[in-house]
Write a structure and sequence with these properties.
4 copies of one chain form a homotetramer. Chain A contains 12 helices and 14 strands. By secondary structure, chain A is of the alpha/beta class. In chain A, helix 1 packs across helix 12 (317-332) and helix 8 packs parallel to helix 10.
Chain lengths: 347, 347, 347, 347
């Protein structure tokens, strides 16, 4: 057997960090060599996540100790904190897979506008690759830093890319109505995510102002060959996991719904993790939960000449930890589905 | 005290029927005089709805017996079955409040296109009023038949009417992304509403093909002064009750968000049951559940020049039984909130 | 019409306080004259509970201002804070209805053992009545202070009282396995009530150590004529509202299940708010939610000679605010169901 | 690599069958060679379970075709249908792992009493092993038929076995209050499992009459060395997956809670899939969901001298498909956690 690589997780006690732990423990090519946490340094992770009882895992340390000897470092941190980790990885030769936003936007101007921060180490950003495997697989293999896409942008880009690339839709007027499970808001306590106030409800938040907007636009602008500005409205959905995005765009083609749907099937024909629904079926969260799949359904409203796409992922897997591992697999030459081939349960 | 009027419910064992029972039992001006059910004729309603134990209620009969002596008849039936009830009410002098779709569309052509059925008794339809009280209160007082609006159309029309009436938005390109609790699908069993398959998921259904589409368009065309065609996509939301609609339209005004919001506040200033959210707050289901309120929030996405409206109701109350009682109150001259003034709980 | 009484709520922004607001707004004999909140003094309650938008309500003040001029004061405070309120009410002549635990236990020793606090004003306690209306109605009319029962104790006492009073069961070995919705844990944020950690789970808490234990035992000891010690284990149930208690006791009678069940029916025959399920049906939360009802089912396991009782209430209504209003109605001579006659919805 | 064994699933479209498919697809030592379904013969399983889209799986056939060439046959059928499958497996030499109840009870008398059916082929039953791996691992290796334990009995037996074996508790008076997620009721539609009636509620069912009772008693009688009769009351819990059982028994020892808890730790020290909670922590469903773990917490109520155990499993994994695969692994000499080593997510 090939020697296992050593993986460290910086920010291991947030939800994305814990999901990385969960998936890496059973990854056949990986050994978890370090876990860091600012809030819980010195504790065992099973004290915070009792689901990890009786699993041998490293004690939580600070980031410096956690990444020592690591071949790959996963960073799952609030934005603005990844550059120093990236520098240390550059020194040690470890690959950084950043689950945060710091290396996702190519334009420092856009980053500054949405995140109110500058690039402190611009040269680091030159080696960063926006790592949505189904669209940018080749670049990932040569990345110096892997910028793991956000959850909403993953579902949006996989759904809209083929339509824009093929010229099926107009480039303006795209609307993304997104719904995310509550884990998307993280482990920190808020009134909004207090059970009695999130349960049996739904509401939009950060209307037209969510930081994933420029990230979605960056990928789609690349597909369209020009700057895309779109409407993105996320909603807090009373489920633990999963994102559903219903996307609206004006048709710019005479192709039939069957032809458009077939173009989607063809576009993703070799992609294990992207599945196009049969005609007439809508993508739904339960068919992807706790898996690395993205399910997409393609609809046309003839009365209004509108293309409607439904795109579903698990926000913690394909939208975070699973995709990060997929990127690691690609970079290190493992089977792409290694450790993340679990099927969704459907119930 | 004024003499109570007698109310009959035809189709009392569907969810809307049971909600009518629940609300009418404590209505101070109403006595329930008859309950009918095809499926459970001869049984007590508390055998089907054990929440109605130890409440004195009429035994379930057929429709003819149920409506005898009634001053008002609520019909909650599958579409296509209300005309015969309407005829009997016309004969007996009872007011019919139809919670179904049969009298909602003025155009027989549209009714035929969407419901695959004709108007068998066209003259009956002439006396029918589409009874959304906040928009058409005056007509309701003189109605011969009250066509109680559908749940989705209620939330959509209350949200979009002021914008169209005031010319704030373009008349084409309106998109309604709607999410409804599972009671909206009724009491009948389906795989889609089986707990393990509805829970922890969401999915669109009847994309661009839901029968509430022409009903929404009818009201909005009236507001706009021309035929409106829009995109309507409903989703099955894993909650028991409540509808949230996020609505997108291109702005056709230079007014600021504050001015637009204020126009909404003014439009509904005298309406007890319609509330406009403060600036920056999104309407959410939990603030209206089990009440007759409709909460609306007004947002503008400047980057794309888009008006975004969020509109929330309880589908069983303002979207069905509560609004039907509101209409009854208007018609009979009771206080408009009589029996339906309960506040939402928020949790 | 009789002049309305003035009601103040001290601690109006906790869940029980907000539920009192909700129910008192539509109570025909009550005017809300004051609302207090330590955390939100000076704010409008609709800033914290947007479900109360567009309802005219007093601004949140401190307790002293809130209770000025009040005929009845509802206190919904953490334990240990009610005695000073009680003193002020004694001075002003207002009735205190205390939703907290401070006046529930007659024995200061037990209070000290479980709450780690003494009675600072023992004379106040002499005028306090443990106000479970179905069991102690007559005493309530003459109360100086109404100690409103806890949620778990209400469901437990109503279920077990007839069995103990009639000698149907052995006095030792009673086990209460209780499940409560998350509102029972209140509005304060905790990891346990964070949506992703409460949802799709259940767990016991405070096993054998919950402070409602001595309160349950006090009422049942009274029924049994001797000191009862029992096992009480609460669980956090992933619903917003409702308590279900499944209660186990060894039979001490030869009566048949039908005879025992009939004795329950007879015991509560004149009680509007207590309902005994038909034979073979289990009480369930959905049949009482958002109402003041308590549903009880009676079962016998012949193989083990065990009486099994299931008892359900809404923890916020019959378990808190609704029962407090029921007590107010009794004290002031209003109809006992005045303002709290809403039926449960069942869905 | 070792040659893969061929596995067939009879009754592949029930929830347990679908869960077997899900887990076996990624089992490194297994190839799924056949899937049968009475209801959906001739269809692809992804038509019923769209979560299985784009996964190569055999078309659904009748049972005879499905089990051809199989080395192991998993049967997930309504009770009373497994004997004919067992006969065919005996002829073909395939191992039968029966997820149903037909081979679980050793006593035909008990089987007849609870299932209203006799053993048609008594000799088949002689080779059947009740296969709870942590308790009966050695017998499994030599089984002719593997009777996979029921979900409730798995959680109950793992929790109570050490206490009975060690004489910590009295043998009479044991009470099991069990709560199960709705998948436990299967895929078939019922009013009880209709989303709006299962959601936001809980209720006991089959009080003292559930068919898992004799199965639990059989294992515990074996541990106790005498016939155990106990009270078992299951509840329908509004979650998709998971069982929590809170178990009450009178202590028959002077050992401290710490000593008892340590005895549990020691009893399961070498068992990967059974975990004892730290002192003061209650087992909860979310820590085992979608994994093969069983978490047990040990509590003592000194006031009443009662041992209280909380035991949690995922009903579809450790309670059905996962344990069936664990048994297959043991029988065929694979690593015991092969294909079922996924960790629970905790959220």
């Amino acid at each position: 057997m090939t020697k296992k690589i050593k993986a460290a997780i910086v920010g291991a006690t947030g939800y994305a960090g814990a999901e990385l732990v969960r998936l890496l423990v059973t990854h056949p090519m990986v050994e978890i060599s370090g876990l860091s946490s600012v809030s819980f340094e010195g504790k065992e992770i099973c004290e915070i996540y009792p689901n990890f009882k009786k699993i041998g895992l490293p004690t939580l340390t600070d980031a410096d100790h956690a990444i020592e000897d690591a071949d790959v470092v996963f960073a799952s941190l609030p934005h603005g904190l990844s550059e120093p980790i990236a520098e240390k990885c550059a020194e040690s030769g470890a690959l950084l897979i950043d689950l945060g936003a710091d290396f996702r936007l190519e334009s420092e101007e856009e980053y500054s506008e949405w995140y109110k921060k500058t690039f402190d180490k611009p040269t680091l950003h030159e080696g960063a690759v926006y790592a949505l495997p189904e669209l940018f697989r080749e670049k990932i293999k040569d990345a110096k830093i892997i910028a793991n896409p956000g959850c909403y942008p993953t579902a949006a880009a996989l759904a809209l890319y083929p339509a824009l690339k093929n010229g099926f839709i107009e480039k303006s007027g795209i609307i993304i109505d997104a719904k995310s499970g509550v884990t998307g808001a993280g482990r920190s306590l808020t009134q909004t995510t207090h059970y009695p106030e999130a349960n049996e409800s739904i509401s939009a938040y950060k209307v037209g102002a969510h930081r994933h907007t420029p990230e979605i636009e960056q990928t789609l602008s690349y597909a369209a060959g020009e700057k895309i500005n779109l409407v993105f409205v996320p909603h807090l959905l009373p489920v633990n996991r999963g994102i559903e995005e219903t996307i609206y765009a004006r048709l710019a083609t005479d192709k039939s719904i069957d032809e458009i749907r077939q173009a989607y099937v063809d576009f993703y024909i070799d992609e294990q993790f992207v599945r196009i629904e049969p005609s007439g079926v809508s993508a739904q969260i339960r068919n992807v939960t706790r898996s690395n799949y993205c399910d997409i359904s393609v609809h046309v409203d003839k009365r209004t000449n509108t293309l409607i796409l439904c795109s579903c992922i698990d926000n913690m897997v394909k939208g975070a930890a699973g995709q990060a591992i997929q990127n690691m697999n690609i970079y290190f030459g493992f089977e792409e589905d290694c450790g993340i081939d679990m099927l969704p349960a459907g119930f």
